[in-house]
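---------- Forwarded message ----------

FYI, see the Glycosyl hydrolases family 16-domain-containing protein record below. Original note from H. follows.
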Amino acid sequence: MWTTTPSSILLSLLFLSSVLGKVAEPKSRKTDACQPRKTTFSSSRSGYTPIKPSTISLSHQGIELHLARPEGKISVLKDGTNDKQSVGATVNSTFSLWYGKVSFEISAPTVPGVITAAILISDSSNHQEEIDIEILGSQPHAFQTNVFAPAAKDKGEEPLYGVLGGTSKLKGSETISDLHRYTIDWNKDRIIWTVDGKHARTLKKNETTINGALHYPSHPMRLQFGIWDASSPVGTSEWAGGPIKWNGKGGSHLGTITAVVRSIEVECP
C-alpha cells in the first residue's frame, strides 16, 4: 500500500521519531494498565503538556497546533528541500497506558509537506516502540498507519521503519481537513485502526514476525500528538509531498499552518 521507497520511509520515520520523541519525561507521569478518560480541549488540556507552550492555543474548536513560517527568506535547495524548517507543536500526555483504545478527533491541514501525527510512544528508552497515525497534507483523502517495535535480534541491522505501515482512505469525498475520529485499539494480540467508527486496518501480533523476531508493541506508552514540517531531508520531503511552499505566487506568503485536536478519549478493556 506504500507508494514511496523503503529508504524514504526510513528517513521520514526517523525524522518523525526525532521530532515527536524528543521530550523531557514529566516527573508526575503515572503509569497504569489503563484508566478511562475523555478530554475536550475547548475547555481544558488537563493531562496533556506541550513541549513549547507558544506553539499551541485553546479555542472553541479545541487545541490548536501551530506550525509557524520560519523567519527570514526561505529558499529551495538544489535537492528540492527547503533551507529552513519550522518547529511545530508537540503535546504529550502526563499519563501512560498499557493496552487500551485511544480516539483522537482531528482536523488536519491539506498543505503538502505538513504532517499531523497522533501516536502512542513508549516511555522507556530501552523499548522504543510506537503505534502511529500520520496524516499527510499531500494526501487529503487518506491517512497512514504504522508500527515500530525493535527486537533485540535487530541489533546492527537496518531499523524496520515502515515495514509494518499502511495507507487507508477516508470515505467518499471527505478530506483530512474535515473533523475525523481516528482510533487506535491496542491489545496483546492485535492493533485495530478505525476512522469515524469504520474499520481501516488490523495488524495481528502473529503478522509482525520479521526475520524470526517479533516486532509487536508490548510496553506502556504515552499519548503524543503534533504537527511538523517535513521539508527536509530529501527522503522525508518526498514522502510528505514537500517541501512546504511558504512562498506563494505573486509575492504572497503562507503564514502559520494549524491543525486542531478537538478531543481525546481513552477507553479500557
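H. also flagged this: The chain has two helices and 18 strands.
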